[in-house]
Amino acid sequence: CSFCGYATKNPASYQQHMEKHSGKGYECIMCGIKYTNSSGLYRHRRKVHGLSAHRSENHVYKCHECGKEIIDKHAYQVHIKRHTGIHDQICEQCGKAFKTSTDLQKHIRAVHLNRYHHHCKNCGHGVAKLSYLLSHQ
């Protein structure tokens, strides 16, 4: 390499090395982190975001409402539901409606099964959210 003296007999390694001097930046569309070469970006995408080296940006689902990018189709569908205002997950015990099955399950555990995350040290009263506990005390 005429810039830094790097030497290799492997043409692919030399080409990859030269990308460092090209001034190009390889930016991850998922989180914005930048790499000096494409192999660093591909390695990052595999390890951090679960994308294979051959998977293109076309497999990323982008929310048209808020711009969030999601790689899992089901997670994307759940995310989109949060913007719609549709509450189609109904509790069979009390009729309360929720946007997602996860929210419904949290409700069932906290309200109907008495499985609370926070408990009052004085009386043992259980609540789902810390803010509820603080107002209780």
Automatic annotation (TrEMBL):
Pfam families: zf-C2H2. This is C2H2-type domain-containing protein. It comes from Capitella teleta. Residues 1-26, 26-49, 61-88, 89-117 form the C2H2-type domain. Keywords: Metal-binding, Nucleus, Repeat, Zinc, Zinc-finger. PANTHER family: CHORION TRANSCRIPTION FACTOR CF2-RELATED, ZINC FINGER PROTEIN. GO terms for molecular function: DNA-binding transcription factor activity, RNA polymerase II-specific; RNA polymerase II cis-regulatory region sequence-specific DNA binding; zinc ion binding. The keyword Chaperone does not apply. The keyword Cell division does not apply. It comes from the Eukaryota.
